[in-house]
Amino acid sequence: MTKTIKTPLVFACGTLMPNRFMLAPMTNTQSHKDGTLSNDEFNWLTMRSKGGFGLTMTCAAHVQKIGKGFKGQLGIFSDIHIEGHKRLVDGIKKEGSVAVIQLHHAGMRSPEDVIGEQPVSPSKVEKHNARALTLEEVHKLREDFIDAAIRAQKSGYDGVEVHGAHGYILTQFLSADINKRKDNYGGNLNNRARLIFEIVEGIRKACGAQFLIGVRLSPERFGMQLDEVKTVAQQLIDTNQIDFLDISLWDVFKTPEDDAFQNKSLLSHFEELDFKNVKWTVAGKINSAQDVQKVLETKVDFVTIGHSAILHHDFPKQVIADPNFTPKETPVSISYLKKEGLGDDFIDYMKRRDGFVKE
């Protein structure tokens, strides 16, 4: 390996990550109804910091009340959230982990029964009963992402990740299938990507050069075209405004769905980018120690762990101690998950995943 799992990583902004493990931003449905932090969410996240994750990322935290994507979601849209975030940041940093919050808005994927009104999207989407944002509302959305980052910095976070993946509102803007706007935020790729770039630029300007900024993108699904996502990724690198790119590949070892790109794996396609001084992480079925090693033998700088982090709060420590470590097989018992720091709401959420929780 050209880099080891224990090698510290220094981002362009100066933040030091003590190893190559990032906790994936995972939906856990454990926050209070108003978006404030609960003890269960605090315990779940700080237990992962204690377990050796060099960077601990929160679940997606919504930047507007109307952007809530699921019950029990953590909020960052109001100052009422700051007190809980300060407590969480202190708990994460106490363990020597980098504290990052993911900024999110679900857009058309905000359930009406959760937000209590019609969801919004770049354009009208009948399937989701979503209405189109006005131009004024697009500008307000941009400012609310930036304000959420300022709030995060006040709370003590080392940085933020802008969630532009998985079919949420920034993906909806990027997608030519969903975004049918006729103004500067629709049409060609530069226009469809405009909002992401304005948000990143605004966060950098407001929070300064030493604040860690990442962007999450995902190729495929929700109208994402591989070549377009690669173009946006390279443009984000070239702006010299971000510190890391988080590419969610669904499965890091799969080949693209598009016939035109099946000559190599999705990961290999992104290896073609010129990352310059931007660090790169990937997510998607990196479950065992051998998977971690295989990924780090590529141009990837650090790995993002989801599934195995649920099963083992100390997955990084286990992998560092044993290069052949494999996670516990599922299904697992409720008592096992409680021991690993999951609250009742998170366990109920995981029951939706086939074969994960033993009934």
Protein topology:
Elements: E1 9-10, E2 16-17, E3 21-23, H1 39-50, E4 55-62, H2 82-93, E5 98-104, H3 112-115, E6 120-121, E7 131-132, H4 135-155, E8 159-163, H5 169-174, H6 189-207, E9 212-217, H7 226-238, E10 244-248, H8 266-271, E11 279-283, H9 289-296, E12 302-305, H10 307-311, H11 315-321, H12 334-339, H13 344-350
Parallel strand pairs: 3-4, 3-12, 4-5, 5-8, 6-7, 8-9, 9-10, 10-11, 11-12
Antiparallel strand pairs: 1-2
Helix pairs in contact: 1-2, 2-4, 4-6
Summarize the structure.
This protein is an alpha/beta fold. It is 35% helix and 14% strand. The strands form three sheets. An eight-stranded parallel β-barrel has the order 3-4-5-8-9-10-11-12, surrounded by six helices. It has a two-stranded antiparallel sheet with strand order 1-2. It has a two-stranded parallel sheet with strand order 6-7.
Please report which band the strand proportion falls in: under 5%, 5-15%, 15-25%, 25-35%, 35-45% or over 45%. Answer: 5-15%
Unreliable sequence segments? none
Strand order of the largest sheet: 3-4-5-8-9-10-11-12
By DSSP, the count of extended strands is 12
Specify Rg, calculated over alpha carbons.
19 Å
State the separation between the terminal residues, measured CA to CA. 41 Å
The helix/strand series, from N terminus to C terminus, equals EEEHEHEHEEHEHHEHEHEHEHHHH
- Described by the principal axes of the CA atoms, the overall outline is globular
Content-based structural category: alpha/beta
Q: Give the biggest beta sheet.
A: 8 strands, parallel, barrel
